UniProtKB/TrEMBL annotation:
GO terms for biological process: iron-sulfur cluster assembly. Belongs to the Mrp/NBP35 ATP-binding proteins family. NUBP1/NBP35 subfamily. The keyword ATP-binding applies. Gene3D superfamilies: 1.20.5.110, P-loop containing nucleotide triphosphate hydrolases (3.40.50.300). ATP binds at G282, K283, G284, G285, V286, G287, K288, S289. Residues 26-64 form a coiled coil. The gene is NBP35. GO terms for cellular component: cytosol; cytosolic [4Fe-4S] assembly scaffold complex; nucleus. Component of the cytosolic iron-sulfur (Fe/S) protein assembly (CIA) machinery. Required for maturation of extramitochondrial Fe-S proteins. The NBP35-CFD1 heterotetramer forms a Fe-S scaffold complex, mediating the de novo assembly of an Fe-S cluster and its transfer to target apoproteins. This is t-SNARE coiled-coil homology domain-containing protein. [4Fe-4S] cluster 1 binds at C216, C230, C233, C239. It is found in: Cytoplasm; Nucleus. Keywords: 4Fe-4S, ATP-binding, Coiled coil, Cytoplasm, Iron, Iron-sulfur, Metal-binding, Nucleotide-binding.
Length: 528
């Protein structure tokens, strides 16, 4: 019989038994043991095949009678016992059979410590004493091996738990750091809003006479001299009969002071900006902010061109969302407020960055709006720009008047007016054109947005907003203004704005993208 094969099988059986013990331990801990199953089954198959080979060899030797095969037969039986024990431990036998196998295998030589000794030690021979001592040492070695294995497994489990705890602690630390950063941003935003509010309040504070009654409504109020609180006030008659509104002489004085101070500072601050373009619309919802964002992305696609976007739609700031920077904050430096940068050559400034919550309403009257616009022009460090695009609110409001006044010295290249084809939108565009002419703002051209719908499959065009009076083309001819182009309706423009990405980059070659690029090229030629 091949004794080398028998030795290899015996070693393989012992190793497999150790693996089975480890597999059963992990299974008891409800851990994954899939990685052990394949190797164990492979080893069992090798053991069974090897035993069959050895049995065949042993049978041939017994038939030949060449030599005594008793010892080899005993070893082979012990090998089969080990395989049966592995099957029992793996659950490959029914419960009763497995229990009998394990009990039979465990009825081996008892430990010396639990063996009844009825012999007299003095009657033992030296060889017997040595044999007894060797059994004691073997038992102790076995116990130490089991203890060492248990300690090693506990150590491995401890290291595994330690790694998990370390990972959890790291996650907690990172979360706490994010909370701290968020709290700091909220604190800075509140501080900036308080500062803006104080500045605006100081600029618009109404003077009340020192000898006025308590609860005086103020001399500029429509109820001045008429409220019950005015009874007995020495100024009652004057307040009741005086014209309301700012004193023209005082207003002229304030304008001269502003011309000598803030407007000059603004002109100096914006001296590094080559071109300033306003984006206007007579009515809301015609795509003015969408056009501003696409124009900004197109211009900044050239890395050598520096672009800034100033959002003065104070009550409805949508530029932060459209440009994908809705969660950013404004930072203060020695040179002033720093714009929020979408990319290295594209900066944005909006009141949306100053709100503690993006859903907070901005309920401001004209003077506070004017004060914030002045700060955007005077206190923001725009640096050297090739283009500053100003996204305005719809219509002609305080923001437009303030902007025209503040940029009087620094100059405006012109305005682009966005409209849709239907007459209800064109009516307000006529008012916008009249405002620009009275404010001496050059009109660079009209853009007709949502001008039909081009099917992405058949490329057929459908009219969504009928140009009942000729649309932007007829209006441009009526007022002698350039029609920069028509942009077809594309739902993907709205999707890009919601996601804060460039429509021109996401859908190049689409009809709307081609129209945008053609209009932007015309604008470049006009201003440059």
């Amino acid at each position: 019989m091949d004794t080398k094969l028998l030795s290899r099988l015996d070693l393989l059986a012992d190793n497999t038994l150790s693996v089975v013990f480890e597999r059963n331990r992990l299974k008891g801990l409800k851990l994954n043991v899939d990685k052990y199953e394949g190797n164990i089954q492979k080893n069992l198959n090798q053991l069974r095949d090897g035993i069959k080979v050895l049995e065949q060899q042993l049978s041939e030797e017994e038939q030949s009678g060449a030599r005594d095969t008793k010892s080899e037969e005993d070893k082979l039986i012990q090998m089969q016992v080990k395989v049966d024990k592995l099957d029992a431990l793996l659950g490959n036998q029914d419960d009763a059979t497995a229990r009998d196998i394990l009990l039979r295998n465990n009825r081996g030589k008892p430990s010396v410590r639990f063996t009844a000794v009825d012999m007299n030690p003095n009657d033992l021979e030296d060889g017997q004493i040595l044999q007894l001592q060797q059994r004691i040492i073997d038992d102790q070695d076995t116990d130490l091996d089991h203890l060492s294995l248990a300690i090693r497994r506990q150590r491995e489990l401890g290291l595994l738990i330690g790694d998990e705890l370390e990972t959890h602690a790291q996650i907690i630390d990172e979360t706490e750091e994010m909370v701290d950063r968020t709290d700091e941003r909220l604190r800075q935003a509140k501080k900036k809003l308080d500062y803006v509010g104080r500045r605006v309040k100081d600029n618009t504070k109404e003077e009340i006479p020192e000898d006025a009654n308590e609860h005086c409504p103020g001399p500029e109020s429509e109820l001045a001299g008429k409220k019950d609180a005015c009874d007995g006030c020495p100024n009652q008659t004057i307040c009741a009969t005086a014209p309301k509104g700012p004193d023209p002489a005082h207003e002229r004085l304030m304008v001269r002071k502003m011309n000598g101070a803030d407007i000059s500072v603004i002109a100096e601050r914006l001296s590094g900006i080559k071109h300033k373009i306003l984006v206007l619309s007579g009515k809301g919802g015609v795509g003015k902010s969408s056009f501003t964002s696409q124009l900004a992305w197109a211009l900044s696609s050239d890395e050598d061109v520096q672009v800034g976007v100033m959002d003065i739609d104070i009550c409805g700031p949508s530029i932060p969302t459209i440009m994908g920077v809705v969660d950013e904050q404004i930072h203060q430096s020695n040179s002033g407020w720093q714009p929020v940068y979408v990319q290295d050559n594209l900066g944005v400034m909006s009141i949306g960055f100053m709100l503690p919550d993006k859903d907070d309403a901005v309920i401001w009257r004209g003077p506070k709006k004017n004060g914030l616009i002045k700060q955007f022009l005077r206190d923001v460090d725009w640096g050297n720009l090739d283009f500053l695009l100003v996204d305005t609110p719809p219509g002609t409001s305080d923001e437009h008047l303030s902007l025209a006044s503040f940029l009087k010295e620094s100059g405006i290249d012109g305005a682009v007016i966005i409209t849709t084809p239907q007459e209800v939108a064109l009516q307000d565009v006529r008012k916008e054109i009249d405002f620009c002419r009275k404010a001496k703002i050059k009109i660079l051209g009209l853009v007709e947005n949502m001008s039909g719908f081009v099917c992405p499959n058949c490329h057929g065009e459908s009219v969504i907003f009928p140009p009942t009076t000729g649309g932007a083309e007829a209006l441009a001819k009526e007022f002698g203004i350039a029609l920069l182009g028509r942009i077809p309706l594309d739902p993907r423009v709205a999707k890009s704005c919601d996601m804060g990405v460039s429509f021109l980059d996401e859908y190049p070659g689409s009809p709307a993208c081609v129209a945008y690029e053609d209009i932007i090229d015309k604008l470049r030629d006009i201003v440059e």
